[in-house]
Amino acid sequence: MTHLHSDVLSALHRIAPDFADVAAAHDRSGDFPESNARKLHEAGILGLAAPRDLGGKEADLPTALTVVQSIARDDPSSALVLTMTWLTLRGFGERAEWPEHLRRRIVADVLDNGALVNSLRVEPDLGTPARGGLPATIARRDGDQWRISGRKIFSTGSTALTWMLVWARNDDDDPKVGSFLVHRSAPGIRIEPTWDHLGMRATVSHDVIFEDVPTPLDHALDLRPLAHVRSFSPEFAAWGSTLVPAIYDAVAQSARDWFVGWANNRVPSNLGAPVSSLYRFQEGIGSVDALLLSNRVLLQAAARGELGATELPLLKYLVTENAISVVERLVALSGNPGLSRSNPLERYHRDVLCGRIHTPQADVALGGSGRAAFSAAANKPVEPIGVAVP
Questions:
Q1: What is the pLDDT of residue 327?
Q2: CATH at residue 257
Q3: Is 342 inside a domain boundary?
Q4: Which residue of 103, 171, 224, 291 could cross-link 322, Cys pair, CB 3.0 to 4.6 Å?
Q5: Which of 194, 226, 258 is the last residue of a domain?
């Protein structure tokens, strides 16, 4: 953590316990914790990743990793919505087609008003565009504006977003695809409360329906034929591939800490001592700590830029699977208390399982790595593997 951000880290330590206090309630209600977003804004955290020339602090990836994991240990849903906003802000430096006035408007909205931003890409029929294919969402040109119609699913942060980057195609005979920037106040936007999920329930990842929604012509960003859609740079890909699995590693850390406290205080009458005194429990925590150590080393290496583009998908796969294994081992050790809704371990178990659904999923990460290995041995070029970006 650089000195520049030490004040922000101090503020984060003050507000993070409040996140833990409301996490269980929002998990049950399925509502987004608006108070958490407000506190992140007031602490100056939302704009950490924004470019410095636009008023942000342009935090580096090690700083972002520290902040995201600190938040995710208490409320992973808030951490995921924050991460999506940060990835969008980082994308400003990648996309020269962003008009300057839009870059300034969005960053000012984040810094001054606590605006949240995310890319809406997944559709009912298409699934994730990371696997290819044209979106069904269509933007039709109508005079000096576009009119957008379609449905996006798994729209993280839906009810809390101020700006949405809608992945769509235009209505040309040979369609081009790109992102269309839409403000939540535009008429024709409807949120259908479909997110009734196992875990990460407070991300409010509902369906967002666009019915002839207007947006100005210059809000269309980088329209290109599908075959020529540009990939993000390795530096930007490292942000998505590091921060998203880091959220689930933080969930596993919280599960570990809860279990240690529980095991130290659980004294069965037939044992007359805490269950933590049993070798089985000591060995179990040792195996958990080994997995968490592996995750920490991997995430820190990625944050320092030490992993290559073909290794980033494996990072996401390994960190996620290690985190899931950690929580599953703790549930098995704890027995019924680990599955009781009166204990947070049950919620950690549900939340950590959601790490698998983020791009790139296991088959893509492992299959791509295998292709890269065979291509390298044959001295042939290999296509880049998909990474966890918005």
A1: 98
A2: 1.20.140.10
A3: yes
A4: 291
A5: 226
Three-state DSSP state, 76: helix
DSSP 130: G
CA dist 229 → 117, 130, 222 (Å): 22, 11, 8
Over the stretch 107-158, which tens digit does the pLDDT of each residue have? 999 999 999 999 999 999 886 776 667 899 999 999 999 999 999 999 999 9
Specify if 383 maps to a domain. no
Are residues 241 and 371 located together in one domain of the fold? Answer: yes
Stretch 321-349: mean pLDDT, rounded? 96
Could you tell me how many residues make up the chain? 390
The range of the structural domain enclosing residue 70 comes to 3-115
The predicted structure's pLDDT at residue 116: 98
Question: Distance between terminal CA atoms of the chain?
Answer: 25
DSSP character for 366?
H
Q: Which amino acid is at 193?
A: P
Q: Is the peptide bond before 360 cis (omega within 30 degrees of 0)?
A: yes
- What's the count of helices (H) and strands (E) in the chain, helices before strands? 11, 8
Query: With contact defined as beta carbons under 8 Å apart, do 142 and 127 qualify?
Result: no
What is the model's pLDDT at position 93? Answer: 60
- The Cα 55–Cα 42 span in angstroms is 15
CATH number for position 188: 2.40.110.10
Are the CB atoms for 63 and 243 separated by under 8 Å?
no
Residue 23 has pLDDT above 60, yes or no: yes
Residues 204 and 224: their CA atoms lie apart, in Å, by: 31
Q: What is the pLDDT of residues 111-125, one digit of tens each?
A: 999 999 999 999 998
Q: How far is CA 1 from CA 8, 32, 84, in A?
A: 10, 29, 21
Q: Are 264 and 258 in contact (CB under 8 A)?
A: no
pLDDT value for 95:
61
List % helix, strand, coil for the chain (3-state, nearest 5): 55, 15, 30
Amino acid identity at 133: G
pLDDT of residue 2 exceeding 50, the answer is no
Q: Tell me which amino acid residue 252 is.
A: A
| CA–CA distance, 79 with 302 (Å, rounded to integer) | 19
